[in-house]
Automatic annotation (TrEMBL):
MF-aspect GO terms: transferase activity
Family per record: Belongs to the NodU/CmcH family.
Name of the protein this chain belongs to: Carbamoyltransferase
Record-annotated Carbamoyltransferase domain positions: 2-323
Keywords on record: Transferase
A Pfam family annotated for this UniProt entry: Carbam_trans_C
InterPro entries for this protein: ATPase_NBD (IPR043129), Carbam_trans_C (IPR031730), Carbam_trans_C_sf (IPR038152), Carbtransf_dom (IPR003696), DHBP_synth_RibB-like_a/b_dom (IPR017945), NodU/CmcH_Carbamoyltrnsfr (IPR051338)
Domain Carbamoyltransferase C-terminal: 372-541
């Protein structure tokens, strides 16, 4: 059974392919089109069809469109309410509904040979739920979905048993934790449906002094839902335009909303556990990318395990819809094998790209050791290895790496990427070394979706990755899954005594993560990076010879 999943509504268009119950490919369209989040200048053209990523998924499996048994589309226009019913009064909804209704026709045009009758609509939050509950390592689990909005809801709570979803609660619009956070993101001068993680970072610099008032406005209800009235954030801090400097008041507002969101999510998770008693909770939806909230759910609710979909945002619904439809067609689906589901390149293909670029390169005996040496000398390395990651986190396949022991490297890395100085970078650490350095969050933590407390004696040794509040968003590395990354970490520790390396995504501000060798060469050429490690090859930055 061959099922292609498609997300092509709101933002983050993506495609995923499930063959005989196994996830074989998944990728966001932005990695191909180079338009971040799939957004174009005009709002009504933001719903980009993932033509390039869908074609690649099929090519990766050696399939043609006519070979597909089904195409799963992660939005059901028949479930959309009227503007009066949703309470959002969104002028784009009528066009979204029309666009989604014509999705079979659009997909048949984009993938010649596809029978449009094979396109199946999947409720948006069911697609999110499947991306977590069916992809998680455990077969039976509770599932909690929170995002901005689907057709008529912003939330789903349920459980998976033997691959079947039982929905226990859902929050109807206009109430939405995701839209609330989007409004705050916009109020603070950032891009909504894109920069919410910046608000989470800013929150760590503030004090939640508005929490009392917000706690009376944003509340969980006894039916497993919540209430989020419209809030005029100007009552707490002035509105910012993009690029305008923020103040302590803005950080306090971010901290207050962040804290209240955490508290409501805890209430929702506890309500769900009371009804299921499950050991494992699977999370999806854009709100599930909130690492601070995820850690509190792990540490302060009865769930013993919390698994977060690494592509928790709308891109992940492409995968979830494919898994859901495959199950409906009688397949037994397999858990997600890892996040490295995107494009990969052979050594020969990489060499050919380097030769075409007429760039000097070398093939060291051990690329991991060569990288460790540059890092130990406080160089910055662009690391391009294996298949690209599905989701927003760089997990050792498309990364910028640096030495974590120099406090100035945080500013340096943010300068390289051209982004705000309050933004943190993450530590990468071998799984077996993590517990001596990091605590509170779950271990292992392979997808960088939780925050951990940094042990006091280590915070002074790895200041680059220790955030202002003493936490870090870590990625643990399993040597059996990532032998090359593990060897690089070991070589670095042998030189420095530090088992941690700085890891952040291989891109610059406003650009999607690097995906293919040409992207890597362009990024290396435009950013002050000392070494590009691409497959088994390295490209070194040539320093200009000064006159005299």
């Amino acid at each position: 059974m061959k099922v292609l999943g498609i997300n092509a509504i709101y933002h983050d268009p993506a495609a995923a392919l499930v063959v005989d119950g196994r996830i074989v490919a998944a990728a966001e369209e932005e990695r191909f089109s180079r338009r971040k989040h799939g957004k174009r200048p005009l709002p009504w053209s933001a719903w980009e069809l993932p033509e390039l990523s869908a074609a690649w998924c099929l090519a990766e499996a050696g399939l043609r469109p006519e070979d597909l048994d089904a195409v799963a589309y992660s939005f059901d226009p028949a479930l959309m309410g009227t503007p009066e019913e949703s309470g959002l009064d969104d002028p784009g909804d009528a066009m979204r509904k029309m666009y989604a209704e014509r999705a079979p026709e659009f997909l048949a045009h984009a993938l010649p040979g596809l029978d449009p009758a094979r396109v199946r609509f999947v409720k948006h939050h069911v697609a999110h739920a499947a991306s977590a509950g069916l992809a998680a390592p455990t077969a039976d689990n509770s599932v909690l979905v929170l995002d901005g909005r689907g057709e008529a809801h912003s939330h789903l709570a349920g459980r998976y048993t033997d691959g079947q979803l039982e929905i226990l609660a859902g929050q109807a619009l206009p109430h939405s934790i995701g839209l609330l956070y989007e409004e705050l993101t916009d109020h603070l001068g950032f891009l909504r449906s894109s920069d919410e993680f910046k608000v989470m970072a800013m929150a760590s610099y503030g004090t939640p002094r508005f929490l009392g008032e917000l706690s009376e406005l944003i509340v969980a209800t006894d039916d497993g839902g919540f209430r989020t009235p419209r809030i005029d954030f100007s009552d707490y801090a002035p509105r910012l335009t993009r690029g305008e400097d923020w103040t302590a008041g803005h950080a306090d507002l971010a901290a207050s909303v962040q804290r209240r969101v955490e508290e409501v999510l805890l209430d929702l998770a506890r309500w769900l556990h009371e009804r299921t008693g499950d050991r494992t909770l699977a999370l999806a939806g854009g709100v599930a990318l909130n690492c601070v909230a995820n850690t509190r759910i792990f540490s302060e609710t009865p769930f013993e395990h919390v698994w977060v979909q690494p592509a928790a945002g709308d891109a992940g619904t492409a995968l979830g819809s494919a898994l859901h439809v495959a199950r409906g067609l009688g397949e037994t689906t397999e858990p997600m094998p890892g996040a490295d589901l995107g494009r990969g390149w052979s050594d020969e293909e990489i060499r050919a790209r380097l030769d075409t670029a007429a760039i000097e390169y070398e093939r060291p005996r051990d690329v991991a050791d060569a990288v460790a040496q540059v890092l130990a000398e406080n160089g910055i390395v662009a690391w391009f290895q294996g298949r690209s990651e599905f989701g927003p986190r760089a997990l050792g396949h498309r990364s910028l790496l640096a030495h974590p022991g120099h406090e100035a490297n945080l500013e340096r890395m943010n300068d390289v990427k051209g982004r705000e100085q309050f933004r943190p970078v993450a530590p990468m650490v071998l799984a077996e070394r993590a517990a001596e350095i990091f605590s509170r969050g779950p271990l292992p933590s392979r997808y960088m979706l939780f925050v951990h407390d940094v042990a006091e004696e280590w915070a002074e040794r790895i200041p680059t990755v220790t955030h202002v509040d003493g936490t870090a968003r870590i990625q643990t590395v399993d040597r059996t899954e990532e032998p090359l990354v593990a060897r690089m970490l070991e070589c670095f520790e042998r030189r420095t005594g530090l088992p941690v390396v700085v890891n952040t995504s291989l891109n610059t501000a406003g650009r999607p993560m690097v995906d293919d060798p040409r992207d890597a060469l362009e990024c290396f050429g435009s950013a002050p990076v000392d070494l590009l490690a691409i497959g088994p090859f390295v490209v070194r930055r040539r320093r200009p010879t000064l006159p005299g």
